[in-house]
Automatic annotation (TrEMBL):
Name recorded for this polypeptide: DUF4239 domain-containing protein
UniProtKB keywords: Membrane, Transmembrane, Transmembrane helix
Pfam families, per database record: Bestrophin-like
Keyword Transmembrane: yes
InterPro entries, per the entry: DUF4239
Transmembrane segments: 6-25, 37-58, 178-197, 204-223
Length: 252
């Protein structure tokens, strides 16, 4: 994220400043002032860019937070299932725990890459369904086992709820019309900077470059936030990797 953003910012600033320098050198110091209406129009376009950027950034950040909370909730519920299974008879306990571990691995290895493409993993959901079926068919010879199975079922229901919330975000993206509006207005503003920003000193060139870099970074940031599970800024399966570590600790 840091290196690509810096490359884009520096490249954009350099391109804008170079264009302005070449135009100034070609036309000399006698550069006519822009009509007042043009300046007002560019100001309106710049304001539109800032407004659309703020809207999209807030929207994308909200989707990212929702996806992150869903993954944490699902991983936490899986750890609860693994922990509560301790109260089951040894054979049933080992079977349930093995299925929980298998599902967690499947989320990391199969479903996360699938969510990058906008769909769920069939093998992963089958693993979760087989876990639920194993709990449903579990023999309960005494009252204690029955109580533990009930609690395992409740925690497993939490897994399903959190999974649905996680998958609901796999298609989330910032609204394309507003994204197009932001990118278009940003490009128009950058072109204006390059064609009509004719600085007369190094300080002016510096300010022109900083402005161009800022616009380029805002466009890059929104595009990086565009998908909760893919892109430069996204939610990864770290919560499930931490859950696997916790399973190992509970087994010791």
């Amino acid at each position: 994220m840091l290196v690509p953003s810096l490359v884009i910012m520096v490249s954009t600033a350099f391109a804008v400043c170079l264009t302005a320098f070449l135009l100034r050198r070609r036309k000399g110091h006698k550069v006519p002032d822009l009509p007042k209406g043009v300046e007002m129009a560019i100001g309106a376009v710049s304001g539109l860019f800032v407004f659309s950027f703020a809207f999209l950034a807030v929207n994308a950040q909200g989707q990212l937070d929702t996806a992150r909370k869903a993954t944490l909730a699902e991983a936490g519920a899986l750890k609860d299932v693994y922990f509560v299974a301790q109260g089951l008879p040894s054979q049933e306990r080992d079977d349930i725990r093995q299925r929980v571990v298998g599902y967690t691995h499947s989320v990391i290895d199969s479903e996360w890459p699938a969510m990058h493409e906008g769909h769920a993993s069939e093998s992963t959901v089958r693993g979760l369904d087989s876990l639920r079926l194993a709990v449903y068919r579990m023999p309960v010879p005494d009252e204690g086992s029955r109580a533990v199975r009930t609690e395992v079922s409740q925690r497993l229901q939490d897994v399903y709820v959190a999974r649905r919330e996680r998958l609901a975000q796999k298609d989330a993206e910032v609204p394309p019309p507003i994204l197009s509006l932001m990118v278009g207005s940003g490009v128009v503003t950058l072109v204006f900077f390059a064609l009509f920003g004719k600085p007369a000193s190094r300080t002016h060139y510096l300010l022109l470059g900083v402005g161009a870099a800022g616009f380029a970074y805002m466009i890059y940031l929104v595009l990086a936030l565009n998908h909760p599970y893919a892109g430069g800024i996204s939610v990864g399966p770290a919560a499930y990797a931490e859950a696997l570590l916790r399973y190992h600790q509970l087994t010791l």
